Structures are given as structure tokens and as C-alpha cells.
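Q: Got a minute? One more chain.
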Amino acid sequence: MANQLYFFLVDDDEDDVTLFGDMITSVSPGIRYGYAYDGVSAVRQLKKDPQLPSVIFLDFNMPKKSGIECLKELKNITRLKNIPVIMYSTLSYESQIETAIQQGATCFIAKPSSIERIKKIIVTLAGNMPGNLNNALQELDEANACVVY
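A: Always. Here it is, folded:
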């Protein structure tokens, strides 16, 4: 299913991973969902997965390999370098966000504090992908759901 949407989350918080997956399923059971609990596992999984994700959500702070380290590695792998990476974290230090953008992240989304905000992010992205990611990010930016640089 080459045209199937595929969201991949890299986050060491099991509750966040479960909640994100549940929201994807509630929005559209047709969206494929993958995850890893750290950057090392994420890179290993993404290298061998025959289907490339439509978008990767990447937490900043994780064990084994930070989000920035993982981002750098992903952007140096030919088959993965063009996949949009959204930094997705409770952290929102401007210097870290700028570093992530400089390293190739598409944007930064603060982890929402409510289920409805998570759902809004997923619905907006799913409704605009694969061809209109910029429109989706603009819509999320206007709703104060993400920081777009």
C-alpha cells in the first residue's frame, strides 16, 4: 500500500505512544502507525521497513540517542532524508527548536496537553497529506498547535 498514510512516532514515554496511536486509530483506522521508544531503535526500524513513513514525529529527549542525534542520522540516510520530521516534545526552548530546524526538521509541535489537541494535529495532517503538508502546518500554526520556521 504505497499510498497509505504512515505516521511514525519516536518517543520514550509509553503513555504518549499509546495515546498517539489510539488517536490515529480513532481518526482513521486506515492510517498505518509505527513507533519506537528511542532513537537507536527508530533508525534501525526505519532502515529496514519497506514502506517509508509519510511523516516522522520525533521527541527531543530520549535515552540512547537524543532527538537531535536521531534527526541528524535520519537526514544522512539516503532513503530517509526526504521524509518530513516533526519535532514533537514538551520542550520548547527556542535554541533547541532552531537547532532542529537547521538539522532538517520540518517544524516543531509542542506535545498537546489534551486529547482534542492531539486529535486536531492528526486530523489536520491526515487531511492534507501527502501533497499538502505545508498547508497542514500553516493551519496548525494559525491554531497555535505548532511552531513553523
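A: The radius of gyration is 14 Å.
Q: Perfect, thanks.
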